[in-house]
Write a structure and sequence with these properties.
The chain has about 425 residues and is of the alpha+beta class. Helix content is about 35%, strand content about 20%. The structure holds one RNA strand of 77 nucleotides.
RNA sequence: GCGGGCAUAGCUCAGUUGGUUAGAGCGCCUGACUGUGGAUCAGGAGGUCACGGGUUCAAACCCCGUUGCCCGCCCCA
């Protein structure tokens, strides 16, 4: 049997999967709420290709990051180009922003995307090699922290609508090209004497990404004595962060300042944030994002400010309450008895569907009992019984499957009844 | 890339110190009920016991290897 590639999976209709974390209607539910949020907040959809030139990620995300150094699906195309399945979607969006000269057409581009991303990681709870992200990017002239607060407000609206609980907002500022080099240097001086007592990861991070040393759980005791990024921000970064917090307070959005929150991607500046869930296991990050004011220039565009986040759709679906209703159930099930009745039922279904009624017809000739069983199985709300008698009378029996009430009505009345809904 | 656990029916899982024809619940199909679902009862279909090798008179069970899945590390969504 040919199966899905390791650490990838199928998302199935609910009748084929009991696993609530892999049912397609639950994915649709999150997407629908997200699209409604984007409509209200004025975000417009962008769809970029799922593969790009490898160089885009090398330059955008950073060669030294784990993502680029060991997790990308990269291959050489027939003409020699190095191509890569996108491991994230911010760099592609900025690429499109530059390529289509959006800066000339609008002060601020507010974009969202929904789609699969690919990273060759070892699978785990809430982590897959093809995973789905919904993200937004705000790109343009302004770096007003009000943008950040508004985006987070929108996220909270989504979390509330989706009834996702046990969440926590963590915020931090990682500085800018002015203050970060000083901070990195100072941190290196502080950490150096402790290196022999610290774990292997920290010793490695000391070289590759000194900031991440602050995020070590193993050496938490030592790490807690190191200076926080927040004390060393330059004046402008410090003011930016303070204003950001004021805007959050004004919206009554609770947050926790987490000086150890350091994003692994190179492009982040200033504000970094993350929302975690208490119900996810080790991979507890529901979404994360931040500001990336230099990315446009890094990718060869003109200067532009940027802020965005990506949410893990797979993880959102796992965090959803159990009772998300599957909307794709037939309103009306047509049960028929006899050949003529079946022909009539097939035609009637076509007409009903043209009027927008979701209906199902049995393709087999069954006993009424078995048709009823089938209707029950597909969770039909109503069943229309079409037998020889009904055909002659031109009046059909309509049964409400939840109350059991039955009534007789003509074809005309049937259309009247269901079109209204 | 590293570590731990697991692998028996569509699903969840039993399976004794190795011993005949591998079981249960749920689900599925059929019937009791020839025009009325959910309940009950009866029957039925469904298995390369993950794969390959080894030990043994005999392996679902013991040993080795492989693959896959789960969980953790790393990192991230």
């Amino acid at each position: 049997m040919i199966k899905t590639v390791k650490h990838t999976r199928d998302i199935l209709p609910s009748e084929f999967s009991q696993d609530t974390s892999a049912q397609s209607h639950r994915f649709q539910h999150v997407e629908a709420i997200a699209r409604e949020a984007f409509r209200r907040y004025g975000f417009r959809e962008i769809r970029t290709p799922i593969f790009e030139h490898t160089e885009l990620f090398a330059r955008g995300v950073g060669t030294e990051t784990d993502i680029v150094s060991k997790e990308m699906y990269t291959w050489t195309d027939i003409n020699g180009d190095s191509l890569t399945l996108r491991p994230e979607n911010t760099a592609p969006v900025i690429r499109a922003y530059i390529e289509h000269k959006m800066a000339h057409q609008s002060d601020l581009a507010k974009l969202f995307y929904i789609g699969p991303q690919f990273r060759r990681e070892r699978g785990q709870k809430g982590r897959f090699r093809q995973f789905y992200q919904i993200g937004v990017e705000v790109i343009g002239k302004s770096d007003n922290p009000a943008i950040e607060a508004e985006v987070i407000e929108m996220i909270y609206w989504m979390l509330t609508e989706l009834k996702i609980e046990q969440t926590q907002l963590l915020i931090n500022s990682v500085g800018c090209p002015v203050c970060r080099p000083n901070f990195n240097e100072m941190l290196k001086r502080e950490v150096a004497p402790h290196l022999p007592q610290m774990c292997g990861n920290c010793n490695r991070r000391y070289e590759t990404n000194i900031l991440r040393v602050l995020d070590c759980k193993e050496d938490a005791a030592i790490v807690s004595k190191f200076p926080s990024t927040l004390n060393l921000l330059c004046q402008e970064c410090s003011t930016h962060f303070a204003k950001f917090r004021t805007y959050l307070d004004a919206r009554s959005i609770p947050y926790k300042i987490e000086p150890r929150l350091v994003r692994g991607l190179d492009y982040y500046t200033r504000t970094a944030f993350e929302i975690t869930s208490g119900s996810l296991g080790a991979q507890n990050s529901l979404l994360g994002g931040g500001r990336y004011d230099g990315l446009s220039e890094t990718l060869g565009g003109s200067a532009a400010k940027g802020f965005g986040f990506a949410l893990g759709l797979d993880r959102f679906v796992m965090s959803l309450p159990q009772d998300v209703e599957d909307p794709s159930v037939p309103l009306l099930f047509l049960a028929h008895l006899g050949e003529k009745a079946m022909e009539y039922a097939l035609k009637l279904a076509s007409s009903l569907r043209r009027e927008g009624v979701a209906c199902a017809v049995d393709f087999e000739a069954r006993s009424l009992k078995n048709s009823m069983k089938l209707a029950d199985k597909v969770k039909a709300k109503n069943v229309l019984i079409i037998g020889e008698d009904e055909l002659v009378k031109g009046r059909y029996v309509l049964r409400n499957m939840s109350t059991g009430e039955q009534s007789e009505l003509t074809e005309e009345e049937l259309f009247e009844r269901f079109k209204a809904k």
